[in-house]
Write a structure and sequence with these properties.
The protein is of the alpha/beta class and about 325 residues long. The protein has a single domain, classed as Aldolase class I (TIM Barrel, Alpha-Beta Barrel). It is built from ten helices and twelve strands. The chain has a twelve-stranded mixed beta sheet. Strand 11 and strand 12 form a beta hairpin. It is globular and about 60 Å long. The two termini are about 30 Å apart. The structure holds S-adenosylmethionine and iron/sulfur cluster. The site of iron/sulfur cluster (SF4) has 14 residues, from helix 10.
Length: about 325
């Protein structure tokens, strides 16, 4: 089958699957304080998730990232990992997970054994008070989760969203904490994907601002870019740092990603106002062939992206429901 390609010439290789919109954290930049959860009956069951994942793998997707909400809240997570992992036989090359890690400690070894190749762990600050202000939760279980993943021999990267007035003072302390442990870190510019009216342009700490803060005490060298959304840097000649600058320097022209929500809605861009309801069509009984056609059509029509239409999107779906 020909690869999934959009009208701007970008081939899709990566799919993020949200396993649930539920989360045990309340990160202020990700969801409203009192979120409206999706009706439980609308969430895809495991068979439905695996069927859609298979359809994408058959269409050329070779990297899948499981996300949410918080994927560890999914009771059948291990089975999901094993069954999606079995798509390696059909062309899947990499299976990853993004998690807040607060509930991962007891499951870390099993998840690695079940086939997760790498984990992105969200850790926005190393100072407990700053962490609590941003996530409305405690840092200790997250640090335990990171230790458990390290003990299990997992590949880990840290992700941190930086927000002015909240955690920009933590940029250097968190970097030094991660450097001391040899865990790669990626800073992410704050994107307009939270509760309507919450995001402000002034609250974005740009890539340039982050580099200036780090440059006071560390040597930072720019590295050649790959297809990864993060601009790579080398700190003090040895430590890999990435910065995802969607707002100040969008990477839309090379975007190779798609997103599937927990109800099976396909969003071809984080900033798309509308999704394609594959889950609902599947429940109406349509064939894989028809679903595949709908995927191809939606991908072909993918917008240019944030670069072409910056700012908040008018839609009720915030980051926790989209699957970051
Ligand atoms: N619960 C998991 C976690 O926190 O890692 C997975 C889902 S979360 C939505 C995925 C990623 O989206 C996290 O790294 C989070 O920091 C990021 N994110 C959420 N809202 C964001 C925003 N407004 N701007 C930038 N990144 C955001
Ligand atoms: Fe939950 Fe992750 Fe969103 Fe935080 S960023 S509220 S942990 S989904």
């Amino acid at each position: 089958m020909s690869p999934l390609i959009d009208r701007h010439g970008r081939t899709k290789r990566k799919l993020r699957i949200s396993l649930t919109d539920r989360c045990n954290f309340r990160c202020t930049y990700c969801m409203p304080e009192h979120p409206d959860w999706l009706p439980r009956s609308s969430l895809l069951d495991r068979g439905e998730v695996v069927r859609l994942a298979g359809l994408f793998v058959d269409s050329g997707i070779d990297q899948i990232r499981l996300t949410g909400g918080e994927p560890l809240l999914r009771r059948d997570l291990l089975e999901c990992v094993r069954e999606i992992g079995a798509l390696r036989e059909r062309g899947l090359r990499r299976l990853s997970m993004t998690t807040n890690a607060s509930r991962i400690a007891p499951k870390a070894r099993e998840l690695v054994a079940a086939g997760i190749d790498d984990f992105n762990v969200s850790l926005d600050a190393i100072d407990p008070d700053t962490f609590r202000r941003l996530t409305l939760r405690e840092i200790a279980p997250v640090l335990d989760g990171i230790d458990a993943l390290t003990d299990a021999g997992a590949n880990i990267k840290l992700n941190a969203v930086v927000i002015r007035g909240d955690n920009e003072k933590d940029i250097v302390p968190l970097l030094e904490w991660a450097m001391a442990r040899g865990i790669p870190l990626r800073y992410i510019e704050y994107m307009p994907l939270d509760a309507p009216g919450h995001w402000k342009r002034d609250a974005v700490v740009s890539e340039a601002d982050m580099l200036a803060a780090i440059g006071v005490s560390h040597r930072v060298e720019h590295q050649p870019r790959s297809s990864d959304p993060a601009t790579p840097y080398l700190v003090d000649g040895h430590y890999p740092l990435g910065i995802i600058s969607t707002v100040s320097n969008p990477f839309c022209s090379t975007c190779d990603r798609l997103r599937l929500t927990a109800t099976g809605e396909l969003f071809t861009c984080l900033f798309s106002p509308l999704g394609t309801p594959l889950g609902a069509r599947m429940r109406e009984g349509v064939s894989d062939e028809v679903l595949g056609e709908q995927v191809r059509r939606a991908v072909w029509l993918k917008d240019a992206g944030y670069a072409a239409r910056p700012g908040p999107v008018d839609r009720p779906v915030t980051m926790h429901a989209m699957g970051g």
